[in-house]
Amino acid sequence: MCIEQTMESPLVDYIIKKEGEETLYELTKYLMGESDKELPQIKGVCWREKDRVIINEDREFVDINTLPFPYSTEKTREFLITYRTFSTNYSLKTVEPVVMELSRGCPYSCKFCYNRFFSKNIARIKSIDKIEKELTILKDKYNIKEVGFYDDSLCGGNRKRIEELCELLQKLGLKWQSAIRANYIDDKMAERLEKSNCHHVFIGLESNNDRILKKFNKGYTSEIVYRAVRTLRKYKIYVSYSVIIGYPGETREDLNNLLDFVDEVRELHPNSGIAVQPFLPLPGTDLYQESIDLGFTPPSKLEDWADFAHDEFKAPWVSYYKDLSAIYLVTYVGFRYKWYLKNSKIAFIYYLFHKISLWRWEKRYFSFYFEGIMFKLYKKFGKPFIYIQRQLENLYL
Ligand code: SF4
Fold first, then answer.
1. pTM, whole model, 2 decimals?
2. How far is the centre of ligand 1, averaged over its atoms, from the C-alpha of 181 (Å)?
């Protein structure tokens, strides 16, 4: 995606398109002078020849069943700790959940998702034997008790493999979390998830409006959306739902209806979280061109993509774009992760903003959003302090 623009950056010498495992290996060998291939022969690489950008042909998809397990080296634990040290999202006290993939790609075609472009609607799924071997390494060699699966669509959307996975995790006694599509959720599946120690699922409901679900090409109707919520509330699995606001063609009425739906979900399933996410036109997606036609100007250089985030994006097709960012942050602080209140060392500050956010939500009052300005300041100046704090914590682990 955006290859020419990326290559314009003086910071970039090479790009590896799409999946990197084999291309990175071949490029590294070439750069070390150990390759019998010349650059034009290395599939998947983009490079510069004098002032010309050369884009080599795409590499075929890798066979994920033949890839080595990345967590099987002597340095695995060290790598995981280092990763945590540089991430502001995780506790340093544990390396769990260890994240791994079970599949790549997705057979569905949601119009806001990069997947159709990237994976061409092809889902590749690891064999259950390979999955068992890898999970056993994590459990027996590293004493890992919890895993997170970061598939595009859990087990490539293959229901049989999801069921086999549940049996396996029940047998191994590992806790786990993952995203799963709403159409897989019925009582039979929810029971399996619960029994297999699944403690957290993420579900992109996106909307309760059939017209909008169709626009997104979500592949299910509002009936499935409500079935998922009504089913999951009966089980001991924490659920993080998400919905999308501010997409091309949204009206103020659509937005208001969706916010009411969010309240409906909170009432139907009180012990759950729900993220209200502003739409982002991602390159390669079906809605990208529509967004450009409606006035969106993509960032003109590589560095500008850094501000391309849910809380920064100014959708040109709606007059209330400032509200979108406020709604995103209000719902994040108000009820997306309310358990932070119990755990956070800065609970008293969080508590204050949490209360303000809930008040705003109830009144649907998103103007004069001073908390957003404070958040921007925090993003700009706060991270170095967090980093120092984490380095100190690391010293005493
Ligand atoms: S949003 Fe999820 S289900 Fe839809 S295409 Fe993307 S990965 Fe597949």
1. 0.91
2. 8
